[in-house]
């Protein structure tokens, strides 16, 4: 009995399109992708969702920029360029439109509660992490209501979620060398959880 499982690590937005060009080859792979939209051929039962990371070798490891919630004047922020339809709509509604909702890369993200915008995305490490415990998940049509949604969240609810963010933070950190439970270990664990394709000899 011969195992035919392989892991294809791709961290680019058009990876699903690339792998679909060779369907006979792709069926033997588990892909690890940042673009994990199930409407674009991402298959959670076999593929792996991994976080995007912009760390440089000199900045590997967790930063220490946390601040108390009552000293943060910014309600929400988003970063990056306006690539993709969702981001373009987000930028159109909120970029430079409200002082409490910023689009600056300079804002410290450590300790922030993530807001996930999307209808068909498989979130990283969701086999073992319950994202609803430490993030807000909204659908695309709620973009115009982001501020209203955030304003009604109780402080105690936010602090509880923020505490959980800090608890799971180590799973999203790249270390060199790798450390137990960091991002590399989580990716390998996600791969280990996927079913192994076994081909019987003819």
SSE layout:
Layout: E1 2-3, E2 6-9, H1 15-19, H2 23-26, E3 29-33, E4 48-49, E5 76-77, H3 85-94, E6 101-102, E7 115-117, E8 136-138, H4 146-151, H5 155-168, H6 183-193, E9 198-199
Parallel strand pairs: 2-3, 3-4, 5-6, 7-8
Antiparallel strand pairs: 1-9
Descriptive notes:
The chain is an alpha/beta fold and 202 residues long. 25% of the residues lie in helices and 12% in strands. It contains 6 helices and 9 strands, in the order E-E-H-H-E-E-E-H-E-E-E-H-H-H-E. The protein has helices at 15-19, 23-26, 85-94, 146-151, 155-168, 183-193, and strands spanning 2-3, 6-9, 29-33, 48-49, 76-77, 101-102, 115-117, 136-138, 198-199. Strands 2-3-4 form a 3-stranded parallel β-sheet, covered by helices on one side. The protein has a two-stranded antiparallel sheet with strand order 1-9. Strands 5-6 form a two-stranded parallel sheet. The longest helix is centred in the C-terminal third of the chain and has 14 residues, at 155-168. The radius of gyration is 19 Å and the shape is globular. Residues 1-5 and 57-64 have low confidence and may be disordered.
């Amino acid at each position: 009995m011969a195992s035919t499982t392989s892991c294809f690590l791709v961290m680019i937005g058009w990876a699903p399109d690339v792998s679909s060009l060779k369907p006979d080859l792709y069926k033997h792979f588990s892909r690890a992708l940042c673009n994990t939209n199930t409407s674009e051929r991402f298959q959670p039962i076999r593929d792996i969702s991994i976080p995007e990371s912009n760390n440089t070798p000199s900045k590997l490891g967790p930063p220490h920029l946390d601040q108390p919630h009552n000293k943060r004047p910014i309600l929400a922020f988003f970063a990056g360029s306006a690539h993709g339809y969702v981001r373009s709509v987000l930028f159109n509604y909120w970029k430079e439109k409200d002082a409490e909702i910023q689009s600056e890369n300079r804002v410290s993200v450590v300790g922030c509660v993530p807001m996930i915008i999307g209808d068909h995305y498989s979130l990283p490490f969701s086999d073992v992490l319950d994202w609803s415990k430490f993030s807000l998940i909204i659908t695309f049509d709620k973009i115009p209501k982001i501020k209203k949604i955030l304003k009604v969240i109780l402080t105690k609810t936010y602090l509880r979620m923020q505490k959980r963010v800090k608890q799971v933070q180590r799973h999203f950190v790249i270390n060199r060398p790798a450390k137990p439970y960091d991002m590399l270990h989580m990716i390998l664990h996600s791969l280990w959880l996927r079913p192994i394709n076994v081909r019987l000899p003819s």
